[in-house]
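Q: What does the assembled structure look like for these inputs?
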Amino acid sequence: MINPKFGVVVFPGSNCDHDAYYSLHKVLGYEVNFIWHKNNDLKESDVIILPGGFSYGDYLRTGAIARFSPIMNSIIDFAKKGGYIIGICNGFQILLEAGLLPGVLLKNISLQFVCKDVYLSIGNSDCNFTKGIAKERLLKVPIAHGEGNYFADEDTLNGLEENQQVVFRYTSADGTNSENYNPNGSANDIAGIVNKNGNILGMMPHPERCCDPVLSKTDGSLIFKTLVNNILN
Amino acid sequence: MYKAKVLIKRRSSILDPQGKAVEIGAKNLGLKNIKNTRIGKYIEFDVDTENKSAAEEEVNNYCKKLLANPIMEDFEFTLNEVK
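A:
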């Protein structure tokens, strides 16, 4: 493999699909294809991105209807074979509804849509999405969501912690105070988790929105570059 | 054919910030006796099956797989024959 191919899935109501394409292709130089949700061909992608947005208008529950789009059968097969998937924001919600990751995302505790930069600490630096980033490095990444309040029962939360599945946690700018910097009420300050096998990442913050140096923030690109490096090695 | 009426309720162990916010409205309205407001969903639809047990199975599947998320919600439904 010279460079991994990315596939960005487009659902009706996705609105960060072009941001993902722009960052991965124009900024980082990777090969990227859009994949329409009604197709079942993943176009030989090595990494699938489920982008942010409001798939199916967020009707019923966020991600609940997109989860039954035809492409999801291919994505579930791909996931089982160890294919890499990143679900961002609404994409994370879809992964949870599909049962590819555990838990649910409830309405933000404030009931408000929160749109701002947050700091993330790295909870697990052994998975391919973070291996190589210094453990103490904080990432500054924007969030933009109304339903990002991660919830799971106690057993599930304990399991996530024991298995090192919490990849990103909300924290303060100096990384010392997490509790007061949790923007949505998420259990254990969870901002992103991986599955046990470490090939599926779901996260509420938007790394694709902070890749281009022209926007002054580039910490998002660190996640994509790290994954690519780890896949190639 | 049967008319299904489904009620979906958020589990009591899960906070309902929406219910809380609405209850602030009740207080502002001067309704001082309102407590424990919780918001759920009501969904109705027809099920075109020959008999009631087939309809029940269909509605159960619909609820479990799509209408409700068992991690945070419980559901109940009624079925009435429509001619």
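The radius of gyration of chain B is 16 Å.
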